[in-house]
Fold this sequence. Notes:
It contains 14 helices and no strands. The protein is mainly α. Helix 1 (3-41) packs antiparallel against helix 6 (168-187), helix 4 packs antiparallel against helix 13 and helix 9 (242-249) crosses helix 10.
Amino acid sequence: MTDHDTSWKKTFFLVWTGQAFSIIGSSAAQFALLWWLTLQTGSPLVLAMAGIAGFLPQALLGPIAGVWIDRLSRKTVMIAADFFIAGVSAILAVAFLAGTPEAWLIYLILFLRAIGSVFHAPAMQAAMPLLVPPSELVRTGGWGQFLSSGSLMLGPVLGTLLMTRFSVPAVLAIDILGAAIAALTLVAVKLPDPESDPNATPHLLRELREGLGEVLGNRALMAVTLPVLLTTLFYVPVSSLFPLMVNSHFGGSAWHASAVEFLFAGGMLVSSLILGVWGGLKNPFTMIALSLGVLGLALTGSGLLAPSGILAFAGLSFVMGMTGSFFGVPFFAFIQGAVPPERLGRVISLLTSLMSFAIPVGLFVAAPIAERTGIAAWFSISGVLIVLSAGLGYVMTRDLPPPTPAPQPNAQTETTPRTTSG
């Protein structure tokens, strides 16, 4: 291959290496804060409120953020978001050093950190189709998920170690350092942006309508989004209750909780590695439906475990982690290949916002039910609902032909065929 053929790969892995440091810090901080709230309150409602604080910004600001992502340099948006998150974590670290912060302050910090993610994640997703050849989107999505999952595995373990040896501010210091490394890595690379019309007048409502039109006008995108949206509604509230499941149902410690998080991320790591090498099924719609079904079955089984079954729960968490990559990577790769780059930021933000709107609804429903029925029962109920969502997704997409995305404008493509050395 020529240098041109491999240049995008170097940029891709350099960007994701920097992001890995940021994810390690963020996952360590997220775990430390949720575990701290678990020990302080032991309340599903408190953890649900923390979950709402973390997801509400996407629901409120996502569509508007998408417009600005498509207007501005996506590299600049990501750098600004990284530094914003680092600054917010620094404020919380000072609060912990000054004493024991109130729960409302934790909610506020989680809310502000999420604002940074509202801009960062869609900008990252929207930048990839202009860097990566269309035929490689699933593979590179798998490799990106591989680096992300490895970082998510280390985060909770690192958070637990720092909490037991030092304190929460030490965990937040790692979060700040990781965000700074990610931002500096982005400074060192060049990321392409879509061509824009210099004569076009910015208009928020018109640009929002254009993004909505891309979604509503694509039957396949609508059909595959609905089951993923329903799964988000049922699963995310349960995911916020994992620490409480470990603590209250299984009687586990922080190390047990971090081990569960470690194995969940390990499942994502293994499945993303498989995707990076294999590339996934030719029909991503089938792959998404199957993965959602397995997720629901694993969640149902988790809720049926006895209090002595923490090892089985850890194993099922590994399975649940594997399904995340097997439906998430092809889902976003399909979006990246089906939507023009100049509108991709809006579409990704819009779809993510729709899912985020579902999350507070799910949390408000899940928390009181979990208080009455118990955490384990709600795990099983959610699992059954996800299995039904997977069945709906299969029915809606079984007659759709496998997508064949056209090359995106400005995307870097390979000029020579791939060869295999033996």
